[in-house]
UniProtKB/TrEMBL annotation:
Cross-referenced InterPro entries: Nucleoporin_Nup133/Nup155_C (IPR007187), Nucleoporin_Nup133/Nup155_N (IPR014908), Nucleoporin_Nup155 (IPR004870), Nucleoporin_Nup155_C_1 (IPR042533), Nucleoporin_Nup155_C_2 (IPR042537), Nucleoporin_Nup155_C_3 (IPR042538)
Gene Ontology terms, MF aspect: structural constituent of nuclear pore
Transmembrane segments: none
Localization, UniProt: Nucleus
Name of the protein this chain belongs to: Nucleoporin
UniProt main location, coarse: nucleus
Family the entry assigns: Belongs to the non-repetitive/WGA-negative nucleoporin family.
BP term (GO), one: transcription-dependent tethering of RNA polymerase II gene DNA at nuclear periphery
Stretches assigned to the Nucleoporin Nup133/Nup155-like C-terminal domain: 565-1240
Organism: Coemansia spiralis
Keyword annotations of the record: Nucleus, Transport
Nucleoporin Nup133/Nup155-like N-terminal domain boundaries: 27-465
Signal peptide: none
Any one annotated GO CC term: nuclear pore inner ring
Length: 1259
C-alpha cells in the first residue's frame, strides 16, 4: 500500500464497505477502571495522567505522586507505587542497557518529577496462556529499585522515549533535550547516572541568563526509529526535528529541521487548508508514528494532525524514491539521512462512506477533532471528540480488494481505504496494539479464522478492546445472517473477486478446533455452499488485450485459453498463504556449537512448523472429506458459462486441466506437510549430533537449504535422502535397530521415505551385520538377503549408492553380488533399452537418452573396477564366462576393458555373443577392425573376413593409420580369403558375407566371385598407386604427394589426372591404361614415344640398348594389353628408332626386344610380316629390306630357341605356345626371296634361302 502513497502527492478516496455496516474495528468489550482508581481520577484537585504499556499488558495511571499499574485483563488487579512524594509529570517504559541489570529485568520504567528522574527495574513473566484465547492472566509484573536517578533541576520532562539499545531521551519544558545516561558502576571521572543536555552549547554554562539566546521551543513528543537510527522530535510550533543517532546508535546529530510542514502540505494538497485545520498559524499535530523499514523502504514517518490528516515523510532522496523496489537498498544505510521531506498528504477519513454514494452529496463531510491517534501496518485509529462523555474511534485501513482490482486495470492506481467510526466511553488517553504479531498490509493474505489484530483504547472510563475486521471476518459475519440471499453473496464476490472469496471460504472451513466450535454449522455450510455452488467451473475465455502492455502479454493471440475455476484459484491462494511463513526460510542452517565446530540445526522454530503443519492437515482433512471438490466429469458435466456452443470434448478438456492442476496442488500440500514432519523428526533425533557423521563438504551442501527447495526441487529431495542416510548411520553406529526409525519415516513422511527406502536401509543393516558376523556362512546368508532386497529396488538406486554398496559386497568377498546388483540397476533404470539405441546412434548431443546411458555406464564401472582390482585372477576365459552375458552394453564395456589390458585373444576364447557386434559398431578403430576379420577367420567365416579386409584397404577413416603397402597386403589377404570362401561353398559349407538370409550355393558362389573380382581390380590399381608412389620418392621433392598416396586408394582417373600426367610418369600412365582398359591408340602411342625418347635422350643411357631394356620391363607388365601394349604400335616405334640410330642398330634388335618383352615369336612374326606387307603395298613408310632382315633374324632366333627347348637337339614340338606357323613363314620367305631376286639383292636372297632351308630341314 505504501507504493500507492508514493505515486501521488495526496489522496482522499474511501470505499463503501460491504455490507454497509461493516466496521474497520469493532468494539468487543469495555473493561472499566477499578473503583479505587476511578475515585482517584475523579478528584479535581489531583494531577492525573494515563497511558498504556502494551509490552507488559498494563495501563499506567499517575495521580499526583502515585503511580498505578493496572492489569486491565484482570480488571481489578492493579499495583501502586508511592515510594516518593513528588508529583509525577511523565512516565515511560524503555529497554534496559545490556549488561547493567540482572536478567530478570526486562524493561526499565522511567519516572520523571520536577525534582528528579529515576529508574525502576521491571520484571515481567507472561505466565502460561490458558486454553481459551485471550483469557491469560496478563502476566506478573515486579518492580525493582535501581538507585539510578538524576536531578531534574525544576525542569518538567514532558516526553520520554528509549532506544532498543537502552539510551533514554527526555524533552524538558525548557526547550532542551536531555539524555539519561547510566552505567553499572561509577567510573573514575563518571557517575553511574547523569543527565546530559544534548542541545545546549558549552558557552551557555558560563553566560548569565539575560545573555542567553532566545529560548528553544519545547518538545511535545518524541519517537525513535531503531532501524534507521533516527529520533523524531515534535516541537510546540508544529515543526519536527530529525536527529541522527549514528551508525552505532551512540551519537546525537541534528540532521534536519522541517519548519514549514503546513505550507508544504498545502502545496501538495489544495484541500489541506480548506476546513480541515484550525486555520491558525500553528499546525496542530496529534501524534507521530514511525513507519518500520519492513513496511516501507522509502517512507519513514507518518504524522496525524488534529484534523485527522495523515502526513507521510521520507528520509530518502526523491531520485531514489521513484526507483523500482529492487533498486532501493534492502537494509537501511548506516549514514545520516539525505532529506526529510513531506511526500504525501492523506485527507481525513470520510465518515460518509457508510452512506450510499447516491446520498453522499446531501450529507456534509464531518470535520474531525483528533487528540490521540495510532498507526501501524497501514491501519490508522484516530480518537475524535464526539461529545464531553464519548470519543469516536475513527478507523481507516487499506481496501485491499479494490486496490488489487484496480492494479490489474491501472498499475499506478491510487490508495483506497475503508473507513468507519466506533464510539467509546470517556476521553481517550492512549491507543495501543496488544498481542501484536507481525502483520502484513494485505488483510486478504490472512489464513487465521479469527481476528489477528486487537487494540486497547484507554479512556477515563476504562479500556475498550477493539478488533480489526478483515475481509474474512466480514464474510463470516455475512454468513451468520439467518436469511442469506444469493444476491448478497454475489455482491460480496463482485467486491472481492471469486478467487479471494473462495480463499476466504477455505480459511473458515479449515479453522482450528476452537474457532470451529465458536462458529455455527450455518456458517460452515454456507461457506461450503459458496465453494461448490458459486466457485465457478473451468471454461474457455477469449484473450483480451487491454492497452499496449496487455497486448504484448497475450500468449495465445489466435485462440481462447482455459480459465480455471475460482474454487481452484482459491485453494491455490490459501495454500500459498499457509506456506508463506516458512516457504522462504532456511530449513537447515549451519551454526558453531563449539570453537571451530560447525553443525547443522533446524532453521525454523518448532512452534512455527507445528502451526503451519496444523493448517495443512486441516486443509488436507477437508479435501479428503469433500470428494466432490474434484467434480466427476462423467456424472457432473457443467454447463459452459461463457460460450454454450462448446463441444463436450472442449468442456472435458477444461475439467481435465483443472483436475491435473488440483492434483499437483494436493501433492504440494502433502509434500509440505511431510517435509515439516521430517524436520521435526530430525529435531527429535538431534540433528546437530547427526550432522557429525556427515562429511564436511556434504555438510556445507546441506546447510542453508530453503524449505521451498526441500519440498519442490530434486536437490531438496536428494538432501532429504542424505539426511536420512546420516540418521540411519548414526543409529547403526549406536548399535540401534533402524526398524523403529524406518517405521516413523514411512508413516510420517512417506513421500520422502518410501517402501524402497525401507528396503534400502534394511539391506544396509544386513550388510553391516554381515561384516560383523563371525561365521562365513552367516555372512553369506546376510549378504544374499541384502542382495535380494537391493535387487528389488534397483531402479531407485543412484549410481553413488550402487558404488558404495558394491564396495561393501566386495569387502565381504561377494564379487558375484557386485555384478548382479550393478547389472540389475542398469537394467531397471532403462527398461526400454534406450541406452543401447543411444550408443548405437553414436551418442548424439543434447539427446534425452544420454542421462540413462551415463547411469548404466556408471553401474558397469563398478564391475569393471572390481575386475581391475583382481585382474590377476580373473583374466581367463573361465572366470569371464561366469559373468552374465545378456547385457550388450555391459559386454561392450567388458570388451573395452579387455582390449585396454591387451587381452584381445580372450574375446575369441570366451565365445561371447556380442563380440561381432562390438567389433562392428562405432566407434571403430583399426585394432577392432583387425580383430573383427581375425574373429571371422577364427569362426571360419572367410567371406566376411575378406569383406572386412577389403574395407580396410579402401578405408579413408580418420584415425586409421594404414599406409599403401598395408592396404595392398589387406587386398591380397582379401583375395586369398575370398578364394578359400569359394572353395568352402563349393565344398558344401556356408560362409555368408553379409547378414542376409541364407543363399543357395550358386548365389553365394556368384556373390563371392564378384567380390573376388572387385578385390583383384582394386589390387591392380593399388599396385599402380604403389608404382607412382615409388616413382615420386625416387624423383625426390615430392614427399607430400607420396605421403598423400598412403591415405586412401585412388581410382585410375585420380591417379592419372592428379599424379601421372602432371608429373609425366610415363610408366605409370601406361599401367593406368592397362588397368582401366582405356582404348586410345593415339594416346598410347604418344605416351610410348615420349617414354622411349626420354630414355633415348638421356645422356647417361646406352641408346637403343636402354630403349630395349625399358620395352622389356614394360612388356612384362603390360603385354598382352591392347590398350597399353599394342604390338604393332610398339614394333613400329622400335623400327622407327632403329632407323634413326642405324649406327647402334644390330639386325634382329626389334624382334629380340619384343621376344624378351614376353611376346611370343609367332606374334612378333605376324606383326613384322604385316608391316612388310604394308610396306610392299605402299601403306607404310618403312624400309622393306629392314623388316625382312628382322624377320629372318627372328626365324633364326626362334629355331635356336626351339632346338634348345626340345632338349635332344631334335625338332621343336608343334603346338607349343611359342611355336611358329611354319607354313606361313615358309610362304613368306618364298615371297621375300622372289622380291629380293627382283630387286637384284643377291645377299639378302642368299640369307633368306639359308633360313628357309634351315626351316625345311627341321620341319
Amino acid at each position: 500500500m505504501v507504493k500507492y502513497r508514493k505515486q501521488t502527492s495526496s489522496s482522499d478516496e474511501y470505499e463503501l464497505a460491504l455490507p454497509v455496516d461493516w466496521q474497520v474495528v469493532t468494539k468487543q468489550r469495555l473493561i472499566p477502571l477499578p473503583d479505587a482508581l476511578f475515585e482517584q481520577y475523579d478528584l479535581l484537585e489531583c494531577r492525573c495522567f494515563m497511558g498504556l504499556f502494551p509490552e507488559i499488558k498494563r495501563a499506567w495511571i499517575t495521580v499526583d505522586h502515585r503511580l498505578f499499574l493496572w492489569n486491565y485483563e484482570e480488571e481489578s488487579d492493579f499495583y501502586s507505587f508511592d515510594d516518593q512524594e513528588q508529583i509525577i509529570v511523565s512516565v515511560a517504559l524503555v529497554k534496559p542497557k545490556p549488561g547493567v541489570f540482572v536478567d530478570a529485568i526486562k524493561h526499565v520504567l522511567v519516572v520523571a518529577t520536577p525534582l528528579e528522574v529515576f529508574l525502576l527495574g521491571v520484571g515481567y513473566d507472561a505466565g502460561k496462556v490458558a486454553g481459551v484465547r485471550g483469557s491469560g492472566s496478563g502476566g506478573e509484573v515486579s518492580l525493582f529499585a535501581t538507585q539510578l536517578s538524576v536531578p531534574a533541576d525544576g525542569v518538567a520532562m514532558t516526553s520520554i522515549c528509549g532506544t532498543a539499545d537502552g539510551r533514554v531521551f527526555m524533552s524538558g519544558n525548557d526547550g532542551a533535550l536531555y539524555e539519561f545516561a547510566y552505567q553499572s558502576e561509577d567510573g573514575w571521572l563518571t557517575k553511574k547516572a547523569k543527565k546530559v543536555n544534548l542541545t545546549s552549547t558549552i558557552a551557555s554554562y558560563f553566560l548569565p541568563t539575560f545573555f542567553a539566546a532566545k529560548r528553544e521551543q519545547a518538545a511535545l513528543s518524541m519517537v525513535v526509529d531503531d532501524v534507521r537510527r533516527l529520533l523524531y522530535v515534535l516541537l510546540q510550533d508544529g515543526s519536527i526535528k530529525v536527529v541522527w543517532l549514528g551508525a552505532s546508535g551512540a551519537e546525537f546529530l541534528l540532521a534536519h529541521h522541517h519548519r514549514s510542514i503546513a505550507t508544504t502540505a498545502g502545496l501538495l494538497c489544495s484541500q489541506f487548508n480548506e476546513g480541515f485545520s484550525d486555520g491558525g498559524p500553528v499546525l496542530e499535530i496529534a501524534s507521530m508514528h514511525v513507519i518500520p523499514f519492513s513496511e516501507s523502504r522509502t517512507l519513514s514517518l507518518v504524522v496525524v494532525t488534529g484534523s485527522g490528516c495523515r502526513l507521510y515523510f521520507s528520509t530518502v532522496a526523491r531520485s531514489q524514491r521513484y526507483y523500482e523496489a529492487s533498486a532501493v537498498p534492502s537494509q537501511p544505510a548506516g549514514r545520516q539521512p539525505d532529506v526529510f521531506e513531506l511526500v504525501h498528504v492523506r485527507m481525513p477519513p470520510d465518515l460518509r462512506a457508510a452512506i450510499p454514494r447516491s446520498m453522499q452529496c446531501l450529507a456534509p463531510r464531518q470535520a474531525l477533532n483528533v487528540h490521540t491517534a495510532f498507526y501501524r501496518n497501514g491501519t490508522a485509529l484516530l480518537a475524535h471528540t464526539w461529545n464531553e462523555d464519548h470519543d469516536s474511534i475513527v478507523g481507516a485501513a487499506p481496501a485491499c480488494a479494490q486496490i488489487l482490482a484496480r492494479t490489474v486495470r491501472q498499475p499506478r492506481a491510487t490508495l483506497s481505504e475503508h473507513a468507519s467510526s466506533t464510539r467509546v466511553e470517556g476521553r481517550t488517553w492512549a491507543i495501543a496494539e496488544i498481542d501484536s504479531a507481525p502483520a502484513g498490509l494485505n488483510d486478504l493474505a490472512s489464513v487465521s479464522s479469527v481476528p489477528t489484530r486487537s487494540f486497547a483504547v484507554l479512556t477515563n472510563a476504562g479500556v475498550s478492546i477493539l478488533e480489526k475486521q478483515r475481509p474474512v471476518d466480514m464474510l463470516r459475519a455475512l454468513l451468520t445472517r439467518p436469511a442469506l440471499q444469493d444476491v448478497q453473496v454475489k455482491e460480496f464476490i463482485a467486491a472481492y473477486g471469486l478467487n479471494e472469496t473462495c480463499a476466504m471460504c477455505f480459511t473458515i472451513l479449515c479453522a482450528d478446533d476452537y474457532s470451529l466450535h465458536s462458529m455455527s454449522m450455518q456458517v460452515l455450510n454456507a461457506a461450503r455452499r459458496i465453494l461448490f455452488e458459486f466457485g465457478g467451473v473451468p471454461h474457455f475465455v477469449e484473450p483480451l488485450a487491454v492497452g499496449f502492455a496487455a497486448a504484448s502479454d497475450v500468449s495465445e493471440a489466435n485462440g481462447p485459453r482455459i480459465q480455471l475455476s475460482g474454487r481452484h484459484h482459491g485453494l491455490a491462494m490459501y495454500l500459498a498463504r499457509v506456506l508463506q511463513p516458512v516457504w522462504g526460510l532456511h530449513a537447515t542452517v549451519s551454526k558453531s556449537d563449539r570453537v571451530s565446530v560447525w553443525r547443522l540445526h533446524i532453521g525454523i522454530s518448532t512452534s512455527e512448523l507445528f502451526e503451519v503443519q496444523e493448517r495443512l492437515r486441516r486443509l488436507q482433512h477437508f479435501l479428503n472429506n469433500n470428494q466432490r471438490f474434484l467434480p466427476d466429469q462423467l456424472n457432473q458435466m457443467p454447463v459452459q458459462p461463457v460460450d454454450g456452443s462448446r463441444a463436450p470434448a472442449d468442456i472435458a478438456k477444461c475439467w481435465n486441466e483443472e483436475t491435473v492442476s488440483l492434483g499437483a496442488i494436493y501433492e504440494l500440500l502433502v509434500r509440505s506437510s511431510e517435509a515439516i514432519s521430517f524436520l521435526c523428526l530430525l529435531g527429535d533425533f538431534n540433528l546437530p549430533v547427526i550432522s557429525d557423521s556427515i562429511a564436511e563438504d556434504q555438510r556445507k551442501e546441506l546447510s542453508d537449504i530453503l524449505f521451498s527447495q526441500l519440498v519442490a526441487t530434486e536437490a531438496g529431495r536428494a538432501a532429504c535422502k542424505k539426511l536420512i542416510l546420516a540418521l540411519i548411520n548414526t543409529q547403526l553406529k549406536q548399535h540401534v535397530s533402524i526398524d523403529s526409525v524406518s517405521d516413523m519415516l514411512s508413516k510420517r513422511c512417506s513421500s520422502i521415505f518410501s517402501d524402497s527406502d525401507v528396503a534400502l536401509y534394511k539391506a544396509l543393516e544386513y550388510l553391516k551385520l554381515a561384516a560383523e558376523a563371525e561365521e562365513g556362512a552367516e555372512a553369506v546368508t546376510l549378504a544374499n538377503e541384502a542382495l535380494t532386497l537391493l535387487t528389488g529396488i534397483s531402479a531407485m538406486l543412484t549410481t553413488q549408492q550402487v558404488r558404495e554398496i558394491s564396495e561393501k559386497f566386495e569387502a565381504l568377498g561377494q564379487y558375484t553380488a557386485v555384478a548382479s546388483l550393478s547389472l540389475a540397476c542398469a537394467s531397471e533404470s532403462d527398461p526400454n533399452n534406450d541406452a543401447l539405441a543411444y550408443w548405437s546412434d553414436r551418442a548424439p548431443e543434447n539427446d534425452p537418452r544420454e542421462p540413462i546411458y551415463r547411469k548404466r555406464v556408471e553401474c558397469y564401472r563398478c564391475i569393471i573396477e572390481m575386475l581391475d582390482k583382481r585382474r590377476d585372477s580373473v583374466l581367463n576365459s573361465k572366470s569371464l564366462a561366469m559373468l552374465p552375458n545378456n547385457d550388450a552394453l555391459f559386454q561392450f564395456a567388458l570388451y573395452d576393458w579387455l582390449l585396454g589390458q591387451g587381452q584381445s585373444s580372450l574375446l575369441f576364447q570366451m565365445r561371447a555373443p556380442f563380440v561381432e557386434k562390438f567389433l562392428s559398431l562405432e566407434p571403430r578403430t583399426l585394432e577392432k577392425c583387425d580383430m573383427l576379420w581375425q574373429f571371422y577367420i577364427h569362426e571360419n567365416q572367410f567371406g566376411k573376413a575378406s569383406l572386412v579386409q577389403r574395407e580396410l584397404a579402401s578405408s579413408s577413416r580418420e584415425g586409421f593409420d594404414i599406409d599403401l603397402a598395408r592396404r595392398i597386403e589387406y587386398l591380397s589377404l582379401s583375395i586369398s580369403n575370398g578364394k578359400i570362401a569359394i572353395d568352402m561353398v563349393r565344398g558344401g559349407q556356408q560362409t555368408r558375407v553379409a547378414t542376409r538370409e541364407l543363399l543357395s550355393e550358386e548365389e553365394e558362389t556368384n556373390e563371392l566371385a564378384t567380390m573376388l573380382r572387385e578385390s583383384e581390380d582394386l589390387l591392380e590399381i593399388a599396385q599402380v598407386q604403389l608404382e607412382i608412389q615409388q616413382q615420386l620418392r625416387s624423383l625426390g621433392g615430392h614427399d607430400t604427394l607420396a605421403s598423400e598416396l598412403d591415405h586412401r586408394l585412388f581410382n585410375v582417373t585420380e591417379l592419372y589426372g592428379q599424379f601421372a600426367e602432371p608429373l609425366r610418369l610415363w610408366d605409370a600412365m601406361l599401367l593406368i591404361l592397362k588397368a582401366s582398359n582405356h582404348d586410345d591408340p593415339n594416346l598410347a602411342k604418344s605416351i610410348w614415344l615420349a617414354n622411349l625418347r626420354t630414355v633415348l635422350d638421356d645422356s647417361q643411357s646406352t641408346g637403343l640398348m636402354a630403349v630395349a631394356s625399358k620395352v622389356v620391363r614394360l612388356g612384362g607388365r603390360l603385354y598382352p594389353s591392347a590398350a597399353a601394349f599394342s604390338l604393332p604400335m610398339v614394333a613400329e616405334i622400335l623400327v622407327e628408332l632403329s632407323l634413326e640410330r642405324r649406327e647402334e642398330y644390330q639386325v634382329g634388335y626389334v624382334g629380340d626386344t619384343l621376344v624378351r618383352a614376353t611376346v611370343p615369336h609367332w606374334a612378333v612374326f605376324e606383326t613384322l610380316n604385316a608391316m612388310y606387307v604394308g610396306t610392299a603395298a605402299g601403306g607404310q613408310d618403312v624400309d622393306a629390306e629392314f623388316v625382312v632382315r628382322e624377320i629372318a633374324a627372328l626365324a633364326n632366333a626362334w629355331m635356336d630357341s626351339a632346338q634348345c627347348g626340345s632338349g635332344d637337339g631334335g625338332s621343336p614340338l608343334i603346338g607349343h605356345e611359342d611355336s611358329m606357323p611354319v607354313m606361313a613363314m615358309d610362304e613368306a620367305l618364298s615371297q621375300y626371296i622372289i622380291n629380293a631376286t627382283l630387286n637384284n639383292n643377291a645377299e639378302l636372297r642368299s640369307e633368306l634361302q639359308r633360313v628357309q632351308e634351315h626351316i625345311r630341314r627341321i620341319f
